[in-house]
Amino acid sequence: MFVAPLLAQSKEKPRVITIHAAKFEFKPSEITLHVGERTKLVFISDDVDHGLSVDGLPIDIDIHKSSPTSIVITPEKVAELTGMCSIYCGPGHSQMILTIHVVN
Q1: Which domains does the chain have, with CATH numbers?
Q2: Higher pLDDT, 57 or 2
Q3: Are 64 and 53 in contact (CB under 8 A)?
Q4: Is the peptide bond before 28 cis (omega within 30 degrees of 0)?
């Protein structure tokens, strides 16, 4: 398995990365995670509902304009991953890409 679920193993507070979703991009568009480090990803929609699906990680979330969405993950191996917006948000929808670098 690649990622530990919410309420993961450690009592340490996770590192927090905030990602904004807006037509038609994620800001930042690239993030770096570290193998074995619990990280809380907080997603905020700045305009309409969006989603994020990541091949290689069990991330498939909805990001609603009305409230932040968060997930805590702990990567277990080095990888270069691509996440895509999973809720159609307009003609530039296919350009909404989040690159995730997992490093040691």
Answers
A1: 15-103 (2.60.40.420)
A2: 57
A3: no
A4: yes
